[in-house]
Design a protein that fits this description.
The chain is of the alpha+beta class and 628 residues long. It has ten helices and 23 strands. Helices cover 38% and strands 22% of the residues.
Amino acid sequence: MPMRRMANARRWWMLAFLAITFCALSPRAALAAWWDGQWQYRMKIDVDTTPKGAGIGDAIGRTQVLVRLHDGNFKFDTAKADGSDLRFVAADNKTPLHFHIEKWDPLVDQVGLVWVDLPAIAPGSVTSFYVYWGNDKANAAEDAAATYDADQLLVWHFADPTGAPRDATAYHNDGQTPVRRDDAGLIGLGAKLDGQLPIKLAANPTLNIAAAQPYTWQIWAKPAPANQTSVLFDQRDAGGVADLQIGLAAGEPYAQTTPAAGAALRVQAASPVTPDLWHLITVTASDKIVIYVDGTKVAEAPGSLPPISGTALLGGAAVAPPPSPTASTSSGVAPAATPAPGFVGEVDELEISKTVRPPGTIEVAVHGQGPQANLLGFEAPEQTSSWSTGYIGIILSNVTLDAWVIIGILILMMVSSWFVMVSKARQIGRTAKANLRFRAAMHEAMRGPHAHEPMPPVPPKAMPSVRPASLFHIYDIGRRELDERLSGGRVKADGTISARSLEAIRASMNAQLTREAAKLNNLMVLLTIAISGGPFVGLLGTVVGVMITFAAVAAAGDVNVNSIAPGISAALLATATGMFVAIPALFGYNYLQTRIKTMTNEMIVFVDEVVTRVAEACVQAAVAKAAE
């Protein structure tokens, strides 16, 4: 029973191995690591905040990264023309990520600008995600509103070629004033401000600023060289007194808040920004007001924002702020008594949030959106190996009926050869182990009470385990032949058997040896058929397929490599299948034949050993009788 359980266990392990091997070799197995097998392509994108990449050590958390796709890292001809088959998935290949497309131009510029929401980015590490594409049946899945969290009140990409800027968040804080677009913006299209016509942002409860409210204001700005003192942003209440103003004073970024009653607070950097270059200007407020330029803190002062609930302007000031001789500053510069001129230059990517964005998030924007972007790394695109997609799909779709018949025959040959290899390997292994157990049992018998016999019986306790042994079958035949002669009185006068009887016993054992060898070689002919016949059958399919392909070309009267290449590649599939049948069969045949030859030689040697032992026992018996 234990041996039977072991045999059953080996059988199930073998079946499991074959199943796993088939699944591993099948084309669908390649899709197991994919988010969805209907998408043909994917590319891994790494957000690198280590010193080798962006080198961000501050806390980041949830943020949106800009994925710039171009002809150097993306094949636009493999995606849908409108990019609606794009999908972004987290590193676990299970979690879809929210995203939206700012620009998609697969023909002229071959550029795609996509904003992807990442729930978490760890500082000083690599965070990965995937972009999938290549599914003609896919519908658009972008969702701009879901890309941003509830604290992000306004995001202007300036992505529309004309008209007022539109808000990408769910709050719809759109601009009220059309603005001139700049094709050479930092991120796709930008906006050009002339200092005369600022963009009006209508009053909206979502943009109201409560007293001491956490706040983040951020924009990419490229000031003109002659406009070093200007207002970038101005929001004030209905009375025109309480306000928040952000701008440049002699090139130095500043933020000024004026409450309805009390002293104004002005925070200003100590050094100017370089004109005619893009800079990320960020202002955060909570219990202090902080100014960042290109991710670096340049000024801060204690204080908070006053309540403001009025309209806002981007690129100019509504009215002149009243002079405030008692205003405090962080740099000693007194607040302006007259409004500064409106901003002249280019702007892009305005964001307003009712929370204080951590420094790491600001650095992500600098390194991911700026001119020297080094936040993202793109690995080589991958393609699925599904039967229905890619080059394999092209080949299979051009296989003709006669080729399918040939391939079907080859598959039957392959299945047969694999069955023979597995079954023969199990048979040979089982027999070899039984032979070892038989020899051990015979060594035990030759030391037992029957040791004086020429061919002692196999111990009864060992019988169940040695029955599969080929040596046992040969030995059993020889022992029966010997017993018949001894019990039937067919012996010489001295009680021994004759040389002729020994030869008869050898002949019976050799006959059983032949039968055992035949069992081991049974069905091996199927492997030789697969080895020699598989390539020829496959070649026949290829020849017929090529003939049909050229006949079709001749009938069409159009010689074109694009018309004959698919047919020829499909015809060659038959030869490839034939080789796939023959090569494993060849390896298996050589291995099995070596094992069979070893076992056959073992049986030949065993017959000689048994006959020699019987002859020696007869001589010893004759000598003993003569001595009596």
